[in-house]
């Protein structure tokens, strides 16, 4: 019987051993010498278990999908961090939160994906009690960090666009908020880390196969804890984010009523005078404001896409958890497959965010391209001395053109 053990690690699936379909290797054994219900030797019994846990064809497909997420997620989230680090013009408050989200996604893919995939496929936790606590704790923390980071991003954008005079967002406050996010996330996952432990299956042979990583408290405590987490880390945050982005959308797409968008011109400015018509009217007075509005609209669309993708990827597993802990879903092969797919969707979300940035943000797209271009130029360093210089400055949009111009003038 498979069941999902946690909400924040929604895909951890534990199994009891159904031996009904096993092939009996030694049916001629004496019944009086039987040590198990199949009356086979211990070696044959372990071979039967091995046959059961060996990946089936659809599980090999699942492994391939997870491997794709592993490669794409690690490369993509690393590129996000490198892009903001190398380009000083991208060190904005929103991008600090995006980097924090990328770090959480990178950690969950690197540390949590491999052991949990092996656990899902083989129905066995091979890594001991300490890793049982650590891996699932880090996974819970990373999911909490992702949810809280998206919540802080939505609140930051809401204040910046809808109430620009009420709260001034700064890099220092963003860093303080990130520290608070990690602290709260660590505390949220702590109770589960305390009660998680390995549990051997009651088999008649001494084997590590089918060892589980499960809660040591009662079923009622697990039910209450999981339902509270669903409320705190899914329902409440996304209700708040829906409100903030709805308000942001109304403000940004209502160009006649945008707070803080008045454009003020100095009377002695030549460009401002050139913008005046015959009657002294400012024909181009709204040009700067229009550009700022369009920039904010693009940023808001990207953030809404990230939030929407997160909610869609985590909805199936939360739905399964709610139904399991309220009405009690019967375990069927279809539900097992649905649980495995919902598990994969949670990991896939961590790999999709960099793809969204690449599609919807020109600066990230340019930095991703420059990073790969830089690596290619490094290989040609010996052939072309200029390649080293271009590689050094190609990822810094703010200073690159200026430095190249000064070098060409010097020559």
From TrEMBL:
Q: Which GO terms describe its biological process?
A: feeding behavior
Supply the InterPro entries for this chain: GPCR_Rhodpsn (IPR000276), GPCR_Rhodpsn_7TM (IPR017452), Orexin_rcpt (IPR000204)
Sequence ranges assigned to domain G-protein coupled receptors family 1 profile in this UniProt record: 76-357
Into which family does the record put it? Belongs to the G-protein coupled receptor 1 family.
A Pfam family reported for this protein in Swiss-Prot or TrEMBL? 7tm_1
User: Which UniProt keywords are given for this protein, alphabetically ordered?
Assistant: G-protein coupled receptor, Membrane, Receptor, Transducer, Transmembrane, Transmembrane helix
Output the superkingdom of the source species.
Eukaryota
Q: Provide the protein's localization.
A: Membrane
Identify this protein by name: G-protein coupled receptors family 1 profile domain-containing protein
**Would the keyword Transmembrane helix be found if you checked this record's keyword annotation?**
yes
Q: Which residues form the signal peptide?
A: none
Organism this protein belongs to: Oedothorax gibbosus
Membrane topology classification: Multi-pass membrane protein
